[in-house]
Write a structure and sequence with these properties.
Blueprint (H helix, E strand, L loop, with lengths): L10 H12 L2 H13 L3 H29 L3 H8 L4 H33 L11 H6 L4 H18 L2 H27 L11 H9 L8 H18 L6 H7 L7 H31 L8 H14 L2 H37 L3 H20 L9 E2 L5 E2 L1 H28 L3 H7 L9 H23 L4
Antiparallel strand pairs: 1-2
Helix pairs in contact: 1-8, 1-11, 1-12, 1-14, 2-10, 2-12, 3-10, 3-11, 3-12, 3-17, 3-18, 4-5, 5-7, 5-14, 5-15, 5-16, 7-8, 7-14, 7-15, 8-12, 8-14, 9-12, 11-14, 12-13, 13-14, 14-15, 16-18
Protein backbone atom coordinates (compact mmCIF):
# COMPACT_ATOMS: atom_id res chain seq x y z
CA UNK A 1 0.00 0.00 0.00
CA UNK A 2 1.30 3.42 -0.98
CA UNK A 3 0.63 5.94 1.77
CA UNK A 4 2.81 8.68 0.31
CA UNK A 5 1.32 12.00 1.38
CA UNK A 6 -0.46 14.00 -1.29
CA UNK A 7 -0.18 17.76 -1.68
CA UNK A 8 -2.35 20.50 -3.10
CA UNK A 9 -1.09 21.21 -6.61
CA UNK A 10 -0.46 24.90 -5.86
CA UNK A 11 -1.34 27.78 -3.54
CA UNK A 12 -4.65 28.44 -5.30
CA UNK A 13 -5.80 24.89 -4.63
CA UNK A 14 -4.84 25.19 -0.96
CA UNK A 15 -6.53 28.58 -0.49
CA UNK A 16 -9.76 27.48 -2.19
CA UNK A 17 -9.93 24.27 -0.15
CA UNK A 18 -9.11 26.02 3.15
CA UNK A 19 -11.51 28.88 2.39
CA UNK A 20 -14.15 26.30 1.49
CA UNK A 21 -13.69 24.78 4.92
CA UNK A 22 -13.94 28.16 6.64
CA UNK A 23 -16.96 29.30 4.62
CA UNK A 24 -19.66 27.16 6.16
CA UNK A 25 -23.15 27.33 7.59
CA UNK A 26 -21.96 29.53 10.47
CA UNK A 27 -21.07 32.30 8.02
CA UNK A 28 -24.51 32.13 6.43
CA UNK A 29 -26.85 32.09 9.41
CA UNK A 30 -24.85 33.07 12.50
CA UNK A 31 -22.79 36.01 11.25
CA UNK A 32 -25.80 38.07 9.98
CA UNK A 33 -27.76 37.34 13.14
CA UNK A 34 -24.95 38.47 15.43
CA UNK A 35 -24.22 41.54 13.31
CA UNK A 36 -27.87 42.60 13.47
CA UNK A 37 -28.06 41.93 17.21
CA UNK A 38 -24.79 43.66 18.09
CA UNK A 39 -25.09 47.07 16.47
CA UNK A 40 -24.23 46.30 12.84
CA UNK A 41 -21.09 48.23 12.00
CA UNK A 42 -19.79 48.02 15.57
CA UNK A 43 -19.77 44.23 15.32
CA UNK A 44 -18.11 44.41 11.87
CA UNK A 45 -15.29 46.67 13.07
CA UNK A 46 -14.55 44.48 16.09
CA UNK A 47 -14.73 41.34 13.95
CA UNK A 48 -12.23 42.69 11.39
CA UNK A 49 -9.79 43.77 14.13
CA UNK A 50 -10.03 40.32 15.70
CA UNK A 51 -9.58 38.66 12.27
CA UNK A 52 -6.20 40.29 11.67
CA UNK A 53 -4.97 39.58 15.21
CA UNK A 54 -6.74 36.74 17.05
CA UNK A 55 -7.84 34.85 13.92
CA UNK A 56 -4.52 35.24 12.11
CA UNK A 57 -2.62 33.92 15.13
CA UNK A 58 -4.61 30.70 15.39
CA UNK A 59 -4.86 30.12 11.65
CA UNK A 60 -1.17 30.50 10.80
CA UNK A 61 -0.16 28.44 13.85
CA UNK A 62 -2.22 25.45 12.76
CA UNK A 63 -1.25 25.62 9.08
CA UNK A 64 2.43 25.91 10.07
CA UNK A 65 2.17 22.92 12.45
CA UNK A 66 0.65 20.84 9.65
CA UNK A 67 3.21 21.82 7.03
CA UNK A 68 6.16 21.42 9.39
CA UNK A 69 5.20 17.91 10.54
CA UNK A 70 3.44 16.69 7.36
CA UNK A 71 0.96 14.99 9.68
CA UNK A 72 -2.74 15.26 10.46
CA UNK A 73 -3.70 16.85 13.76
CA UNK A 74 -3.99 13.46 15.49
CA UNK A 75 -0.22 12.94 15.25
CA UNK A 76 1.14 16.43 14.43
CA UNK A 77 1.10 17.89 17.95
CA UNK A 78 3.06 14.93 19.29
CA UNK A 79 5.68 15.53 16.58
CA UNK A 80 6.16 19.10 17.85
CA UNK A 81 6.43 17.90 21.47
CA UNK A 82 5.78 14.35 22.69
CA UNK A 83 4.12 15.59 25.89
CA UNK A 84 1.41 17.27 23.76
CA UNK A 85 0.30 14.12 21.98
CA UNK A 86 -2.94 14.31 23.99
CA UNK A 87 -3.72 17.59 22.22
CA UNK A 88 -3.73 15.74 18.92
CA UNK A 89 -6.27 13.30 20.32
CA UNK A 90 -8.53 16.11 21.47
CA UNK A 91 -8.23 17.92 18.13
CA UNK A 92 -9.10 14.75 16.23
CA UNK A 93 -12.11 14.13 18.48
CA UNK A 94 -13.63 17.49 17.47
CA UNK A 95 -14.23 16.70 13.77
CA UNK A 96 -15.22 13.13 14.71
CA UNK A 97 -18.07 14.58 16.82
CA UNK A 98 -18.95 17.40 14.42
CA UNK A 99 -19.22 15.35 11.21
CA UNK A 100 -22.41 13.37 12.06
CA UNK A 101 -24.54 16.37 13.04
CA UNK A 102 -23.05 18.71 10.42
CA UNK A 103 -24.13 16.24 7.74
CA UNK A 104 -27.61 16.12 9.30
CA UNK A 105 -27.88 19.90 8.93
CA UNK A 106 -26.44 19.51 5.43
CA UNK A 107 -29.31 17.10 4.79
CA UNK A 108 -31.77 19.76 5.94
CA UNK A 109 -30.22 22.18 3.45
CA UNK A 110 -30.44 19.54 0.71
CA UNK A 111 -34.15 19.05 1.49
CA UNK A 112 -34.85 22.79 1.07
CA UNK A 113 -32.65 23.02 -2.02
CA UNK A 114 -34.61 20.25 -3.73
CA UNK A 115 -37.90 21.86 -2.69
CA UNK A 116 -37.00 25.18 -4.32
CA UNK A 117 -35.40 23.64 -7.41
CA UNK A 118 -38.52 21.53 -8.06
CA UNK A 119 -40.93 24.45 -7.69
CA UNK A 120 -42.15 23.52 -4.20
CA UNK A 121 -40.15 26.13 -2.32
CA UNK A 122 -43.19 28.03 -1.08
CA UNK A 123 -44.43 24.86 0.63
CA UNK A 124 -41.29 25.14 2.78
CA UNK A 125 -42.52 28.47 4.15
CA UNK A 126 -45.68 26.98 5.65
CA UNK A 127 -45.78 27.04 9.44
CA UNK A 128 -44.63 23.75 10.89
CA UNK A 129 -42.86 22.55 7.72
CA UNK A 130 -39.39 22.57 9.27
CA UNK A 131 -40.52 21.03 12.56
CA UNK A 132 -42.53 18.28 10.86
CA UNK A 133 -39.52 17.44 8.69
CA UNK A 134 -36.86 17.16 11.41
CA UNK A 135 -39.21 15.24 13.74
CA UNK A 136 -40.05 12.66 11.05
CA UNK A 137 -38.44 9.24 11.61
CA UNK A 138 -37.08 8.45 8.15
CA UNK A 139 -36.75 11.55 5.92
CA UNK A 140 -33.98 13.30 7.93
CA UNK A 141 -31.97 10.06 7.99
CA UNK A 142 -32.32 9.62 4.22
CA UNK A 143 -31.19 13.19 3.49
CA UNK A 144 -28.36 12.86 6.02
CA UNK A 145 -27.17 9.69 4.27
CA UNK A 146 -27.30 11.28 0.81
CA UNK A 147 -25.32 14.33 1.96
CA UNK A 148 -22.77 12.23 3.88
CA UNK A 149 -22.20 9.84 0.97
CA UNK A 150 -21.69 12.77 -1.42
CA UNK A 151 -19.02 14.15 0.91
CA UNK A 152 -17.44 10.71 1.33
CA UNK A 153 -17.13 10.25 -2.44
CA UNK A 154 -15.03 13.43 -2.64
CA UNK A 155 -12.74 12.38 0.22
CA UNK A 156 -12.49 8.84 -1.19
CA UNK A 157 -10.99 10.36 -4.38
CA UNK A 158 -8.19 12.03 -2.42
CA UNK A 159 -6.64 15.46 -2.01
CA UNK A 160 -6.10 16.42 -5.66
CA UNK A 161 -8.86 14.58 -7.51
CA UNK A 162 -11.32 15.05 -4.67
CA UNK A 163 -10.95 18.03 -2.33
CA UNK A 164 -8.99 20.34 -4.62
CA UNK A 165 -10.93 19.48 -7.78
CA UNK A 166 -14.37 20.04 -6.24
CA UNK A 167 -13.23 23.19 -4.39
CA UNK A 168 -12.04 24.71 -7.66
CA UNK A 169 -15.55 24.22 -9.04
CA UNK A 170 -17.78 24.98 -6.06
CA UNK A 171 -16.00 27.97 -4.51
CA UNK A 172 -16.14 30.30 -7.56
CA UNK A 173 -19.80 29.37 -8.11
CA UNK A 174 -20.55 29.93 -4.42
CA UNK A 175 -18.88 33.34 -4.53
CA UNK A 176 -20.82 34.40 -7.64
CA UNK A 177 -24.11 33.28 -6.09
CA UNK A 178 -23.37 35.18 -2.87
CA UNK A 179 -22.49 38.36 -4.79
CA UNK A 180 -25.52 38.04 -7.06
CA UNK A 181 -28.02 37.50 -4.23
CA UNK A 182 -26.38 40.27 -2.16
CA UNK A 183 -26.76 42.76 -5.03
CA UNK A 184 -30.39 41.75 -5.55
CA UNK A 185 -31.16 42.17 -1.83
CA UNK A 186 -30.13 45.83 -2.09
CA UNK A 187 -32.64 46.48 -4.90
CA UNK A 188 -35.81 45.31 -3.17
CA UNK A 189 -38.38 47.58 -1.53
CA UNK A 190 -41.58 46.92 0.38
CA UNK A 191 -44.59 48.84 -1.01
CA UNK A 192 -46.40 48.44 2.32
CA UNK A 193 -43.73 49.80 4.67
CA UNK A 194 -41.52 51.73 2.28
CA UNK A 195 -38.43 50.02 3.69
CA UNK A 196 -35.72 49.31 1.12
CA UNK A 197 -32.72 47.04 0.90
CA UNK A 198 -30.43 50.07 1.12
CA UNK A 199 -32.11 51.02 4.41
CA UNK A 200 -31.29 47.54 5.67
CA UNK A 201 -27.70 47.91 4.47
CA UNK A 202 -27.35 51.06 6.60
CA UNK A 203 -28.57 49.14 9.64
CA UNK A 204 -25.93 46.52 8.86
CA UNK A 205 -22.83 48.61 8.19
CA UNK A 206 -23.27 51.85 10.17
CA UNK A 207 -22.03 51.39 13.75
CA UNK A 208 -24.72 51.92 16.35
CA UNK A 209 -23.39 53.01 19.73
CA UNK A 210 -26.73 54.18 21.10
CA UNK A 211 -27.07 52.89 24.65
CA UNK A 212 -23.63 51.29 24.45
CA UNK A 213 -22.25 50.36 27.87
CA UNK A 214 -19.05 48.58 28.84
CA UNK A 215 -21.04 45.42 29.56
CA UNK A 216 -22.71 45.54 26.13
CA UNK A 217 -19.33 46.16 24.46
CA UNK A 218 -17.95 43.04 26.16
CA UNK A 219 -20.94 41.07 24.84
CA UNK A 220 -20.27 42.32 21.29
CA UNK A 221 -16.56 41.51 21.66
CA UNK A 222 -17.32 38.00 22.92
CA UNK A 223 -19.87 37.39 20.13
CA UNK A 224 -17.42 38.55 17.46
CA UNK A 225 -14.59 36.47 18.94
CA UNK A 226 -16.78 33.38 19.19
CA UNK A 227 -18.04 33.76 15.63
CA UNK A 228 -14.52 34.23 14.25
CA UNK A 229 -13.16 31.32 16.26
CA UNK A 230 -15.76 28.91 14.90
CA UNK A 231 -15.75 30.44 11.40
CA UNK A 232 -12.08 30.00 10.45
CA UNK A 233 -12.05 26.23 11.12
CA UNK A 234 -9.33 26.28 13.79
CA UNK A 235 -9.12 23.85 16.74
CA UNK A 236 -10.89 21.23 14.62
CA UNK A 237 -7.82 19.51 13.18
CA UNK A 238 -8.76 20.81 9.74
CA UNK A 239 -6.16 23.53 9.18
CA UNK A 240 -3.39 21.32 10.58
CA UNK A 241 -4.45 18.59 8.15
CA UNK A 242 -4.75 20.94 5.17
CA UNK A 243 -1.42 22.50 6.16
CA UNK A 244 0.18 19.05 5.92
CA UNK A 245 -0.77 19.01 2.22
CA UNK A 246 0.66 22.51 1.65
CA UNK A 247 3.90 22.57 -0.34
CA UNK A 248 7.05 23.93 1.31
CA UNK A 249 7.84 26.30 -1.56
CA UNK A 250 4.50 28.12 -1.24
CA UNK A 251 4.15 31.39 0.69
CA UNK A 252 2.40 30.43 3.91
CA UNK A 253 1.77 33.93 5.27
CA UNK A 254 0.33 35.17 1.98
CA UNK A 255 -2.01 32.19 1.69
CA UNK A 256 -3.25 32.54 5.27
CA UNK A 257 -4.00 36.21 4.57
CA UNK A 258 -5.99 35.20 1.50
CA UNK A 259 -8.01 32.66 3.49
CA UNK A 260 -8.79 35.32 6.09
CA UNK A 261 -9.89 37.81 3.45
CA UNK A 262 -12.05 35.31 1.58
CA UNK A 263 -13.74 34.03 4.73
CA UNK A 264 -14.42 37.54 6.08
CA UNK A 265 -15.68 38.73 2.68
CA UNK A 266 -18.13 35.83 2.38
CA UNK A 267 -19.34 36.39 5.95
CA UNK A 268 -19.84 40.10 5.23
CA UNK A 269 -21.67 39.39 1.96
CA UNK A 270 -23.88 36.85 3.76
CA UNK A 271 -24.96 39.75 5.93
CA UNK A 272 -25.64 41.85 2.83
CA UNK A 273 -27.74 38.98 1.45
CA UNK A 274 -29.81 38.44 4.56
CA UNK A 275 -30.05 41.57 6.73
CA UNK A 276 -31.43 44.00 4.09
CA UNK A 277 -33.93 41.38 2.92
CA UNK A 278 -35.14 40.55 6.42
CA UNK A 279 -35.26 44.26 7.27
CA UNK A 280 -37.46 45.03 4.24
CA UNK A 281 -40.02 42.30 4.88
CA UNK A 282 -39.87 41.75 8.65
CA UNK A 283 -38.37 44.91 10.11
CA UNK A 284 -35.45 45.16 12.56
CA UNK A 285 -37.10 42.67 14.91
CA UNK A 286 -37.18 39.97 12.23
CA UNK A 287 -33.72 38.56 12.85
CA UNK A 288 -33.51 35.25 14.70
CA UNK A 289 -30.46 33.11 15.23
CA UNK A 290 -29.57 29.64 14.04
CA UNK A 291 -31.83 27.33 12.06
CA UNK A 292 -34.82 29.59 12.72
CA UNK A 293 -33.32 32.16 10.36
CA UNK A 294 -32.24 29.72 7.67
CA UNK A 295 -35.16 27.32 7.57
CA UNK A 296 -38.13 29.34 8.85
CA UNK A 297 -37.70 33.12 8.39
CA UNK A 298 -35.91 33.17 5.02
CA UNK A 299 -38.39 30.88 3.18
CA UNK A 300 -41.25 33.10 4.36
CA UNK A 301 -39.46 36.10 2.86
CA UNK A 302 -39.08 34.32 -0.48
CA UNK A 303 -42.86 33.82 -0.50
CA UNK A 304 -43.38 37.56 -0.06
CA UNK A 305 -41.16 38.21 -3.10
CA UNK A 306 -43.62 36.38 -5.37
CA UNK A 307 -42.47 34.31 -8.36
CA UNK A 308 -38.96 35.80 -8.27
CA UNK A 309 -38.72 34.48 -4.71
CA UNK A 310 -38.83 30.93 -6.03
CA UNK A 311 -35.78 31.66 -8.24
CA UNK A 312 -33.86 33.59 -5.59
CA UNK A 313 -34.71 30.90 -3.03
CA UNK A 314 -33.33 28.18 -5.27
CA UNK A 315 -30.11 30.14 -5.83
CA UNK A 316 -29.84 30.86 -2.11
CA UNK A 317 -30.16 27.23 -0.99
CA UNK A 318 -27.83 25.99 -3.75
CA UNK A 319 -25.27 28.45 -2.41
CA UNK A 320 -25.83 27.28 1.17
CA UNK A 321 -25.56 23.66 0.03
CA UNK A 322 -22.19 24.35 -1.59
CA UNK A 323 -20.97 26.04 1.60
CA UNK A 324 -22.11 23.07 3.65
CA UNK A 325 -20.45 20.58 1.29
CA UNK A 326 -17.04 22.26 1.25
CA UNK A 327 -17.03 22.53 5.04
CA UNK A 328 -18.17 18.95 5.57
CA UNK A 329 -15.43 17.76 3.18
CA UNK A 330 -12.79 19.31 5.41
CA UNK A 331 -14.30 17.83 8.58
CA UNK A 332 -14.33 14.30 7.12
CA UNK A 333 -10.81 14.75 5.72
CA UNK A 334 -9.48 15.70 9.17
CA UNK A 335 -10.76 12.39 10.58
CA UNK A 336 -9.72 10.26 7.59
CA UNK A 337 -6.23 11.75 7.51
CA UNK A 338 -5.83 10.94 11.20
CA UNK A 339 -6.82 7.33 10.58
CA UNK A 340 -4.30 7.11 7.73
CA UNK A 341 -1.42 8.58 9.75
CA UNK A 342 -2.09 6.78 13.03
CA UNK A 343 -3.35 3.38 11.90
CA UNK A 344 -1.41 3.23 8.59
CA UNK A 345 -4.47 2.20 6.59
CA UNK A 346 -5.47 3.23 3.07
CA UNK A 347 -7.52 6.35 2.33
CA UNK A 348 -10.32 4.25 0.87
CA UNK A 349 -10.60 2.04 3.94
CA UNK A 350 -10.39 4.99 6.31
CA UNK A 351 -13.12 6.83 4.40
CA UNK A 352 -15.48 3.86 4.40
CA UNK A 353 -14.95 3.20 8.12
CA UNK A 354 -15.51 6.81 9.19
CA UNK A 355 -18.52 7.23 6.88
CA UNK A 356 -20.17 4.17 8.43
CA UNK A 357 -19.47 5.44 11.96
CA UNK A 358 -20.75 8.96 11.14
CA UNK A 359 -23.93 7.53 9.61
CA UNK A 360 -24.60 5.36 12.67
CA UNK A 361 -24.12 8.31 15.05
CA UNK A 362 -26.16 10.51 12.71
CA UNK A 363 -29.11 8.12 12.87
CA UNK A 364 -29.11 8.34 16.68
CA UNK A 365 -28.97 12.14 16.52
CA UNK A 366 -31.82 12.27 13.98
CA UNK A 367 -33.93 10.08 16.26
CA UNK A 368 -33.22 12.58 19.02
CA UNK A 369 -36.06 14.66 17.59
CA UNK A 370 -38.61 11.85 17.89
CA UNK A 371 -37.95 8.41 19.45
CA UNK A 372 -35.05 9.55 21.65
CA UNK A 373 -36.41 13.05 22.31
CA UNK A 374 -35.55 14.73 25.60
CA UNK A 375 -34.57 18.16 26.82
CA UNK A 376 -31.67 19.04 29.09
CA UNK A 377 -30.35 22.47 30.20
CA UNK A 378 -26.75 23.28 29.28
CA UNK A 379 -24.34 25.37 31.37
CA UNK A 380 -24.61 28.24 28.84
CA UNK A 381 -28.35 28.47 29.46
CA UNK A 382 -29.55 26.69 26.31
CA UNK A 383 -32.13 23.90 26.31
CA UNK A 384 -30.67 21.02 24.32
CA UNK A 385 -31.52 17.83 22.47
CA UNK A 386 -28.93 15.26 21.35
CA UNK A 387 -27.65 17.36 18.42
CA UNK A 388 -27.25 20.40 20.66
CA UNK A 389 -25.37 18.39 23.29
CA UNK A 390 -22.86 17.02 20.77
CA UNK A 391 -22.46 20.51 19.30
CA UNK A 392 -21.90 21.98 22.77
CA UNK A 393 -19.25 19.43 23.73
CA UNK A 394 -17.32 19.80 20.47
CA UNK A 395 -17.67 23.53 19.83
CA UNK A 396 -17.95 25.05 23.28
CA UNK A 397 -15.63 22.84 25.31
CA UNK A 398 -13.19 20.82 23.18
CA UNK A 399 -12.41 23.50 20.59
CA UNK A 400 -11.41 26.19 23.14
CA UNK A 401 -9.36 23.60 25.05
CA UNK A 402 -7.52 22.59 21.85
CA UNK A 403 -6.88 26.22 20.92
CA UNK A 404 -5.61 27.09 24.41
CA UNK A 405 -3.36 24.03 24.31
CA UNK A 406 -2.00 25.14 20.93
CA UNK A 407 -1.17 28.58 22.37
CA UNK A 408 0.67 26.99 25.29
CA UNK A 409 2.56 24.60 23.00
CA UNK A 410 3.64 27.23 20.47
CA UNK A 411 3.83 30.23 22.79
CA UNK A 412 5.70 28.71 25.71
CA UNK A 413 6.97 25.18 25.01
CA UNK A 414 8.13 24.96 21.40
CA UNK A 415 8.29 28.78 21.25
CA UNK A 416 6.88 31.10 18.52
CA UNK A 417 10.02 30.58 16.41
CA UNK A 418 8.57 27.16 15.49
CA UNK A 419 5.83 28.84 13.46
CA UNK A 420 7.87 31.88 12.40
CA UNK A 421 10.68 29.75 10.96
CA UNK A 422 8.19 27.58 9.06
CA UNK A 423 6.38 30.64 7.70
CA UNK A 424 9.63 32.23 6.51
CA UNK A 425 11.38 29.06 5.34
CA UNK A 426 11.85 30.44 1.81
CA UNK A 427 12.88 33.92 2.94
CA UNK A 428 9.31 35.32 3.00
CA UNK A 429 8.44 38.31 5.14
CA UNK A 430 6.36 37.83 8.29
CA UNK A 431 4.86 41.30 8.57
CA UNK A 432 3.03 40.71 11.85
CA UNK A 433 5.83 38.76 13.56
CA UNK A 434 6.01 40.82 16.75
CA UNK A 435 2.22 41.04 16.97
CA UNK A 436 2.06 37.28 16.49
CA UNK A 437 4.46 36.64 19.38
CA UNK A 438 2.43 38.80 21.76
CA UNK A 439 -0.85 37.28 20.60
CA UNK A 440 0.19 33.61 20.80
CA UNK A 441 1.84 33.99 24.23
CA UNK A 442 -0.52 36.33 26.04
CA UNK A 443 -3.60 37.81 24.37
CA UNK A 444 -5.05 34.83 22.48
CA UNK A 445 -4.97 32.33 25.38
CA UNK A 446 -6.63 34.92 27.64
CA UNK A 447 -9.38 35.58 25.10
CA UNK A 448 -9.89 31.84 24.59
CA UNK A 449 -10.11 31.27 28.34
CA UNK A 450 -12.82 33.95 28.54
CA UNK A 451 -14.65 32.18 25.70
CA UNK A 452 -14.39 28.81 27.47
CA UNK A 453 -15.55 30.19 30.82
CA UNK A 454 -18.51 31.84 29.09
CA UNK A 455 -19.42 28.53 27.44
CA UNK A 456 -19.29 26.81 30.84
CA UNK A 457 -21.60 29.45 32.27
CA UNK A 458 -18.98 30.64 34.74
CA UNK A 459 -18.92 34.25 33.49
Amino acid sequence: MNNERNSFSNSVGFVLAAAGSAVGLGNIWRFPYLAAKDGGGLFLVIYIVLAITFGFTLLISEVAIGRKTKQSSLTAYGKINKKFGWLGGFSALVPFLILPYYCIIGGWVLKYTIAFLTGHGFDAAVDGYFTSFITAQYQPIIFDAIFLIAVAVVIYRGVNKGIEAISRILMPILFLLVVGIAIYSLTIKSPETGRSGLDGLKVYVIPSIEGLTFKKFVVVLTDAMGQLFYSISVAMGIMVTYGSYFKKESNLVKCVNQIEIFDTLIAFLAGVMIIPTVYVFMGPEGMTGGPGLMFIAIPKIFVQMGIIGQIIGAAFFVMVLFAALTSAMSVLEAVVSGFIDHYKISRRRATVIETAIALAIGIVICLGYNIFYFEVPLPNGAIAQILDIVDYISNNILMPVVAIGTCILIGWVAKPKTVIEEATINGEKFGRKHLYIVMIKFVTPVLLTILLLGSLGLI
